[in-house]
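Researcher: Can you fold this with UD2 in place?
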Amino acid sequence: MARYLITGGCGFVGSHLADALLARGDEVVVLDNLSTGKRANLAPEARVIEGDVADPDAVARAIAGCAGVFHLAGIASVAYCNEHWREGHVTNQTGTVTVFEAAARAGRVPVVYTSSAAVYGDAGPGAVDEARVPRPRTPYGVDKLGSELHGRIAMGVHGLPTVGLRPFNIYGPRQDPSSAYSGVISIFNSRLAQGLPVTVFGDGLQTRDFVYVADVVRFLMAAMAHAPQAAGEVFNICTGRTTTLLALIDTLARLHGRVPVVQHGDPRVGDIRDSLGDPNRARAVLGVTAEVTLEDGLAALLRQSQAAG
Ligand code: UD2
């Protein structure tokens, strides 16, 4: 049993990770500013420190006594970061450097952090692997890439092992559907459940690699287990399977037993056309792959959201 810090642990992914660590018998400390996360997401056994990830004192307090840090805190919305450039930068990049520095000072505590598939930019059709030259198109992607660059030099300069993960589009229970900035599946799922129309930005033929949150948790845990060998490296979190937005709507609508009403709006600024990850490197080095199909993941999401009322 060990103690782990999860930054952003009251959020969507962090709260699922906390459940998995607690189930394994670990102790969990969470640092969260509750800007989008909710205490209600988190198991009561986890200790919550309310504070900001870009505040060095709060991070140092939270990290004390921890065997590892899962740094998940951040502003997840590409669109929000377009509109709030500096705020996104402070949280997503300064926040990451703040965590790295605190971890180095606390005795070189290994850090697993979430970067993003947004570092690739518009990579075109076909699966991208980690050797692809990153070309982010948005402030969000730039800040994630900047975080990775700090993570890559952390070992050489500070002896700090870090492992970066590049999630593609994560979905699952507890992803908040109430914000326009939330993940598309949570929004479409909630609207279809209420019999409301869904709005597609653009023609709906953009593609995504949707990965279920329980799979993401397994990638995070595998990365922590491999932190000494994989220090300074980055890995995709993806399924290697592609889906258009229109196909996603069809599958979701079928699961809901509804005929979807689809409206179209303008494409979002900086929106990526095709996003598909190559899962081979994570499989080879971390020994982990995504196991949940989109159909099964959506069905699980529906069951949970119907149970939650
Ligand atoms: C996701 C992640 C982001 C980053 C990125 C990696 C979220 C919220 N964002 O950005 O953190 O990891 O992937 O590339 O998970 N859309 C609609 N209608 C809606 C909402 C969205 O058509 O009501 C479209 C949107 O224009 C885009 C697609 O759905 O083409 C996915 O949008 P998103 O906001 O779920 O995620 P994305 O890919 O911008």
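Model: Folded with UD2 in place. Residues 175-207+241-276+296-308 form a domain with the UDP-galactose 4-epimerase; domain 1 fold (CATH 3.90.25.10).
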